[in-house]
Amino acid sequence: MTTETARVEAFSDGVFAIAITLLILEIKIPGPGSGILSAQLLKQWPSYVSFLISFSFIGIMWINHHRLFTHIKRSDNGLLFLNLLLLLGVTAVPFPTAVLAVHLGQGDERAAALLYNGTYFFIAIFFNLLWRYAAADKRKLLAADVDRNAVHRITRQYAFGPLFYLICLGLSWVSVPASLAVNVALACFFALPPHADLMRRR
Amino acid sequence: MTTETARVEAFSDGVFAIAITLLILEIKIPGPGSGILSAQLLKQWPSYVSFLISFSFIGIMWINHHRLFTHIKRSDNGLLFLNLLLLLGVTAVPFPTAVLAVHLGQGDERAAALLYNGTYFFIAIFFNLLWRYAAADKRKLLAADVDRNAVHRITRQYAFGPLFYLICLGLSWVSVPASLAVNVALACFFALPPHADLMRRR
Amino acid sequence: MTTETARVEAFSDGVFAIAITLLILEIKIPGPGSGILSAQLLKQWPSYVSFLISFSFIGIMWINHHRLFTHIKRSDNGLLFLNLLLLLGVTAVPFPTAVLAVHLGQGDERAAALLYNGTYFFIAIFFNLLWRYAAADKRKLLAADVDRNAVHRITRQYAFGPLFYLICLGLSWVSVPASLAVNVALACFFALPPHADLMRRR
Amino acid sequence: MTTETARVEAFSDGVFAIAITLLILEIKIPGPGSGILSAQLLKQWPSYVSFLISFSFIGIMWINHHRLFTHIKRSDNGLLFLNLLLLLGVTAVPFPTAVLAVHLGQGDERAAALLYNGTYFFIAIFFNLLWRYAAADKRKLLAADVDRNAVHRITRQYAFGPLFYLICLGLSWVSVPASLAVNVALACFFALPPHADLMRRR
Q1: Are the C-beta atoms of residues D120 and D113 closer than 8 Å to each other?
Q2: Does the ipTM surpass 0.90?
Q3: Contact partners of B by the rule of 3+ C-beta pairs under 8 A?
Q4: Pairwise CB contact (< 8 Å): C14 & D16
Q5: Which of A111, A115, A110, A80 is nearest to A94 (CA)?
Q6: In Å, what is the CA distance from A24 to each residue of A90, C180, D18, D127?
């Protein structure tokens, strides 16, 4: 069965939009009796840090999903399942985010950072699975007039994802702030479209 | 009144997307003072199990809804109501999921499993009602050039749903883990499109 | 400025879909230590009653919104504002629903029912405002080939809304269950499209 | 890379729709044992005030976003990022709203109002960034046949935003109610489309 991708994109857009909007609910509202409000608000800085990182990450995942589906023009059962697998990762993000928000700067921040970076490691794998499935020649899911070089550049860029996030995961053992900094740097790397120049140099 | 199905699908996509994304909110965030974080996270395994089953179930319901509406091209009041009835089942899923997550492995897990499997039994009935209504010849809601064999195969596959989920519901009395395993197996069965071969053999 | 209504409908669909899906979050999850689960679940019947009424109500509001926008083909600033006013009513529904769920069968159920029926009274007014604005001849927001009889029948059916919901609101003082029963009956009345026969008889 | 804006608008619609619908969740449900219900409900007036202001604000932001995208016809990476930045502001709104709802009329209402008005100040800047980026001649993101005067009028109207919201922010130090009143007045100003007459007079 081959259908158009419009409804797959609409459903995915909904999931991305909800996951990114739910993040704010994880930030606690300081009550009137719990001390000076401004101090209470400042004390919650780990919540803001994890909110901002997760917002950026989900936003950049959406941009990537959007980028892939400018090339993917047809859908089959396999694509539907791999897309669901990716969305599983997307909907899960608010949980490790909230765990990190509560534990960052506390005694157990390492375990929280491992959960956080581990989630992103799996999402990087899911992105590769989806794209490699869709881009396989025999499936003919891409547009007939697709730019083969653009496809190749995405495949190459994505291939780095699981490795880089695995390094990021390992870094959590050494230094939690360093692992989060690398996580942000990776988000920037995947936010940019794969440049021809960058790839040619390799 | 006969209108196109675009807005019915958009509204349904929204409900599916929200229900599947809300599931993660049911997983509790262990606080900093409540013990070793990794141990706290592991202790929550029933939450992860019920999250994964419910995510798969709603995802597969969406795939089925999508599959039905590749055939359904027109809409009337009856279809709108039966679609709402199905969405009632979809939006309800986070509640039995959360109840199961809290009680799985506890003294009251049977009641939680009955509620959980019972919800799916009703949803299976609602799917049959929607499809049988839409597929009835006299209503002309399907595409004019619809593949009659494909329609017939879906009707046959769906006919098993209520019976199988009733068995699953009965199994909850005997063994909760067994009933959940069958529940997962049923999700896989409905995830796959109805194959001609399988049906021909019957 | 006159634009098409596609994005107004998409935004409204999103709001309806979220409001109808959030309702389930208001139902409390009984914890493991709080007694026999089945008894706990049964004791929560007011939550299920108010969930079902609110789900039906929002679902039927969506069907009505959908019905109006099969006629409305153009949009202007006034329509955007009146549509937002209606959506204000829609998004508010989970609050009176939760209040009713907590207080139904308790000493303060009258106040809860007044809040509940009062919300619907205002929504009925907002529906009239939106439709009368859109249907006014001078604005030319309806399709050029619109069925004038259909428009007239909707206008007539909606005219009863505020009056009927006001009666329903008054009934809350006399009997809360009766007011809820009338509320359900009204939902059924507005679920059905306005029939020519019914209207002609008047 | 240049793609159409359909999916950007769909994703943004989702975020706006969810943020506006989540606001209601911040209003607390008074329990049965906490006093006379009607008195409890009235005591929560700051929640209703901040709900109404935030609902209006997000609704008007959506109308403005809609207005901008009737002119924007093409998309590039920069637009995707600036749109995400704007959505960051939109998804954040429920947090300062809830903080204001809890602290309005209390000792710490000034800090809450500063957070609230400060959020809107940043959103006003983000709106300017998005629009100025899209409207720049060299990028050709607007429709080829765009009304240059309409574009100019939007640019002029938006230029006042950051300044006015900064004044509003400063007013929070003097009088919290006055700052909220100005906030509402500003929402009305941006709700209206930029009129040619008004602008010509300047």
Answers
A1: no
A2: no
A3: A, C
A4: yes
A5: A115
A6: 15, 35, 11, 20
